[in-house]
Amino acid sequence: MPKVTLVKEKTEYEVPVGANLRDECRKRAIEVYPGMARYLNCFGHALCGTCKVLVKKGGENLSPKTIFEKGTFALRLLNVGFEDEMRLSCQCKVMGDVTIETQPEMNLSGENFWQKPYPNK
Ligand code: FES
Q: Domain-by-domain residue ranges, the chain?
C-alpha cells in the first residue's frame, strides 16, 4: 500500500492504491483547507483551488494533472515558481509513496518568475 507522508503534521499513513488524496486526509482529520475554506470550498470539483498541497517528493506517484487542475487560475496565480509541484489534493490519486505539505504558503514572487529570460546575456 502506498504511504503518504505529511511534512507539517509529522505523520504518515498508508492508503489503498488509487485513493483520493483529499478524501484520505479528511478521513484522518488532517485539514487540507486553510481557514474558512474548510467550509467554503467546491467539495472536490477542482474549482476553488483551496485544497492545494505542495508535493515535496514522489510527484510521479500521483495521477497526472487533470484538465481542471491545469486550468485552475487561482492555483497558478498564487504559486508562481511552484506550478509543477503544487497539486489539488481533490484531483490526486495516490499510486505510490508521496510526501506532501498541506496548506502551503502562497508564493507570490517565485524564484522562476523574476529570472531574466536570457541569463547569460
Ligand atoms: S476542493 Fe476545490 S479545488 Fe479541490
A: 3-102
| Spatial distance between the Cα atoms of 65 and 88, rounded to a whole number of angstroms | 9
What is the 121 CA–ligand 1 centroid distance (Å)?
42
CB of 46 within 6 A of ligand 1: the answer is yes
Nearest residue to 108 via CA among 86, 76, 85, 65: 76
Q: Taking the model in full, what pTM does it have? A: 0.82
Distance 111 CA to ligand 1 centre (A): 26
Rounded distance between C-alpha atoms, residue 59 and residue 77, angstroms: 20
Question: Which pLDDT does position 26 carry in this prediction?
Answer: 94
* Res 83: pLDDT: 73
CATH of 3-102, one of 3.40.50.720, 3.30.70.260, 3.10.20.30, 3.40.50.450: 3.10.20.30
Ligand 1 nearest atom to the CA of residue 46, by list position: 3
Q: Calculate mean pLDDT across residues 60-72.
A: 85
